[in-house]
Design a protein that fits this description.
The complex is a heterodimer of chains A (214) and B (221). Chain A is mainly α and 214 residues long. Chain A is built from eleven helices and no strands. Chain B folds into two domains: 69 residues, Homeodomain-like (Arc Repressor Mutant, subunit A, Orthogonal Bundle); 135 residues. The termini of chain B are far apart. The chains are: A mainly alpha (214), B mainly alpha (221). Chain B: This is TetR/AcrR family transcriptional regulator.
């Protein structure tokens, strides 16, 4: 801060000073902001929990005050991290097209869904602590689930469209509940299943539901 | 006791004679029970983490009294979990593996759904506290092992014919499909009523058993 103040008169002579100075500050602020987000993300992915502000500051190499200058509440910082990870998982999602044999589509869907859920697992697990009190988190979960519904309907359209409306709805609900990210979390964190085994369980449930040949 | 009282009169003042102690123990047990039940009522009412002040008000005791009976909230929540599990244990009767396949499936589903429905209000509280509460986590694990044992013994004839790896996978899938998280998802996240959620869960569990039966038949042939 003192260095900044001392440097200011010198740059003032250089011309176009005000602009440059603000830009420099913005740049530094943005840099700090990124460091805080990255530190939070690393902590969430390591601990599967919401880090404390002091831990974030330590990891980012900034002051606690600085964290609060950039994020008024830890909740909003957590939402930024959540959006970042979820956004990556969603942009990497490769759609399963409604063509080809059912068994192959189940295999592809389960494999990709498992990879996506595994990626989101730490931040989703941590989110449980804030979901009840965070409208932002509730809204994000809603949007994510709507997207998953579209993915399921697309991949299994031939089978779903053959069903009566009531059966179709029930089948879709069953698929959605089975393939929910919280179901993945339950298998991984609470049932202690390794990735391949949890994936095999999904495969079994979906194959059974859709009546594919085993 | 009287000898001890004579020997250490000072202690005699702190620890009252036997009949009085019993009365106190009884009262203490009742207060403890009231605190536990008040906590359960609040969780059922939608508070995943009831505040001590609310527990005290509901139980009709002082907040100080709560911490006289429980070292901390972790101890209180562990006692709550134990009480809930004890109240549900009678529901989980063993299923006779000699019964026809469909009847065993019906019995398993009745048991799982009844327990899951009773546990619905506790789902969020458990998810919230489990990572930080070893006792609660141990309780949840015990409940899951219990469900696993019941499921394995009910379908022992079919499971026995499977390879070890296939058997484990089938049981894992049966437990996941009838897990309370699945029930929570169907009932709360996807908003299905009791009937629709029951039908959906039965469909999932039945489909896994059908696969297992088909495999065990082809293995036997």
């Amino acid at each position: 801060m003192t260095i900044l103040a001392l440097a200011a008169p010198a740059t003032a002579h250089a011309g176009g000073n005000a602009e440059t100075r603000i830009d420099g500050r913005n740049l530094r602020a943005e840099h700090t902001r990124r460091k805080i987000v990255a530190a939070t993300r690393a902590l969430v992915e390591e601990t599967f929990a919401l880090p404390k502000v002091a831990e974030i500051a330590l990891r980012a190499g900034v002051s606690v005050r600085s964290v609060f200058q950039h994020f008024q509440e830890v909740d909003s910082l957590f939402l930024v991290v959540f959006d970042e990870i979820l956004g990556e998982a969603q942009s990497e999602w490769e759609a399963v097209e409604p063509i080809g044999p059912l068994a192959g589509r189940i295999e592809a869907f389960v494999t990709r869904r498992a990879a996506a859920c595994e990626r989101v697992l730490p931040v989703r697990f941590a989110a449980i602590a804030v979901e009840a009190s965070s409208p932002g988190m509730v809204e994000r979960a809603k949007v994510a689930r709507a997207l998953t519904r579209q993915n399921i309907e697309r991949a299994f359209r031939p089978e779903l469209d053959r069903l009566q409306p009531n059966d179709r709805r029930q089948m879709l609900d069953a698929l959605r509940a089975a393939l929910d990210w919280d179901m993945w979390m339950t298998m991984r964190r609470f049932h202690g299943l390794p990735v391949e085994e949890a994936q095999a369980v999904w495969h079994k449930i979906i194959t059974g539901l859709m009546g594919a040949d085993v | 006791m009287s000898d001890a009282t004579v020997a250490t009169p000072r202690e005699g003042v702190a620890t009252a004679p036997r009949p009085k102690i019993d009365g106190r123990v009884l009262r203490a047990a009742r207060t403890r029970e009231r605190i536990i039940n008040a906590t359960i009522d609040l969780i059922r009412g939608g508070e995943s983490t009831p505040r001590v002040i609310d527990i005290a008000r509901t139980a009709g005791v002082s907040t100080r009294s709560i911490f006289q009976h429980f070292d901390d909230t972790e101890a209180l929540f562990a006692a709550v979990a134990q009480q809930v599990v004890e109240s549900l244990t009678p529901l989980a009767k063993p299923i006779d593996s000699a019964l026809p396949w469909e009847e065993r499936l019906d019995a398993l589903m009745r048991m799982r759904i009844e327990v899951n429905e009773a546990l619905l209000p506790f789902r969020r509280a458990v998810a919230l506290h489990q990572p930080r509460s070893p006792k609660l986590a141990a309780g949840v694990t015990a409940g899951r092992l219990f469900a696993r044992e019941r499921t394995e013994s009910a379908f022992a004839p079919e499971l026995m014919r499977l390879s070890e790896a296939e058997r484990k996978q089938t049981v894992d899938a049966l437990l996941a499909a009838s897990d309370w998280q699945m029930w929570f998802g169907l009932r709360m996240t996807y908003g299905l009523d009791l009937e629709a959620a029951s039908a959906t869960m039965r469909r999932m569990v039945g489909a896994i058993l059908t696969q297992a039966t088909a495999r065990s038949v082809s293995a036997a042939a």
